[in-house]
Amino acid sequence: MTILDSDIEKLRKNYAMDAMDEKSVLGNPLEQFKLWFNEAVQGQCDEPNAFILSTIDAGRPRGRVVLFKGFHKTGIVFYTNYHSPKGHELKALPMGAATFLWLPLQRQVRIEGRVEQIPEEMSDSYFSKRPYGSQIGAIASPQGKVVSSRQELEEAFAHTKNFFPEGKPVPRPKTWGGFVLVPDRWEFWQGRPNRLHDRIIYDSETNGEWAKKRLAP
Length: 217
Description:
Blueprint: H1 5-9, H2 29-42, E1 50-57, E2 60-67, E3 70-72, E4 75-81, H3 85-92, E5 95-102, E6 107-117, H4 120-129, H5 132-140, H6 150-163, E7 176-190, E8 198-204, E9 210-215
Antiparallel strand pairs: 1-2, 1-5, 3-4, 4-7, 5-6, 6-7, 7-8, 8-9
Helix pairs in contact: 5-6
């Protein structure tokens, strides 16, 4: 069946699962995020830790989906190849934005702030817990670079396995590790009927406190 523009225009859903206001959210946005994240996990949302990471490259916005893997310095941690495009972008301009979308709960969270590389021992610890295949893939894949074929990747993977047999520790490559996004702005979005959604933002103030405000949808 061919989907026409007129069909796409009709795609809409009226949100009415929950409500949110300035008094119902917690005073600390990180604690509010933890609350919502736990509810997304318990609500069996698909890939609840998946988020869109946005960066800037020479004035051009770039986005991709990555996985949230924990907390550090009151921020959210994710891992990547430091020599990947996003790795280079974050080194050149260490600022980023994260967007989480939990459709079954009709919720979205936007996070903005500076991005810092986490301590090597923290990256080592996480890498050691990854599945063997993921460890080998992190070493074998030149993430973000042009390759000639799928076969080239498969051959690089097999070649790397010869150096690091399964069952023995696989060292973390120095080109791979974690970043933490340390927020100075949060936005919590709850879908509401008639597109009159609830939007609460937290802005960081100079005294270390958070200021809560409501935005029009």
